[in-house]
Amino acid sequence: MIQRIQSIYLFLVFICNGVLPFVFPLWKDVQGKEFFFMKDMAFSVLFGLSMTLALVSLLGYKKRQNQFVMNRLNMILNVILLGLFVYRTLTLSGEAQVSEKGIGMFLPIVSIVLLVLANRAIKKDEDLVKSVDRLR
Fold first, then answer.
1. Are 74 and 107 in contact (CB under 8 A)?
2. What is the DSSP letter of 60?
3. In Å, what is the CA distance from 75 to each residue of 4, 25, 27, 49, 131?
4. Which residue spans within 1-136 are E strands per DSSP?
5. What's the pLDDT score for residue 111?
6. CB count, 10 Å around CB of 10?
């Protein structure tokens, strides 16, 4: 059912990982050139996988347990992506490469929060279905 709240959360995750990385740069270098995720293959693959998992989870609304598991996998992908961002910024020496961090580096954090909210709503639905089955 598309009208459930977790569907809205998953749609926002899809937007956050599929559309917003094209809009917001990850960082700006010393010359002021914006670095988008497409310049690095690892970032592209992780954003693409996260976007795909969110879309598959959104469209698989009839199987709540599979949706829950896919959201957990998506959270792991976003943590890995966030870890790569942190590693990349910490291993570069000072102002040599990265001058200013962009808002694109915070997209995995937003995705993780939305996925946690979606999983909480899926769990509520699952508990509701189990309680109705007990009454029958």
1. no
2. -
3. 20, 21, 23, 11, 28
4. 27-29, 34-35, 98-101
5. 93
6. 30
Average pLDDT of the residues in 59-77 = 90
Instruction: Using alpha carbons, select from 17, 121, 117, 12 the residue that is nearest to residue 61.
Output: 121
Q: How far apart are CA 38 and CA 22, in angstroms?
A: 8
Residue pLDDT, tens place only, 8-34: 999 999 999 888 888 888 777 767 777
Counting DSSP H helices and E strands in the chain, the numbers are: 5, 3
- Counting the structural domains of the chain, the total is 1
List Cβ neighbours of 116 (8 Å cut-off, separation of 6 or more): 75
Cα–chain center distance at 94: 28
Which phi-psi region, left, alpha or beta, contains residue 32 (left: φ > 0; alpha: ψ -120 to 50)?
Answer: left
pLDDT of residue 132: 79
What's the domain range around 25?
A: 5-135
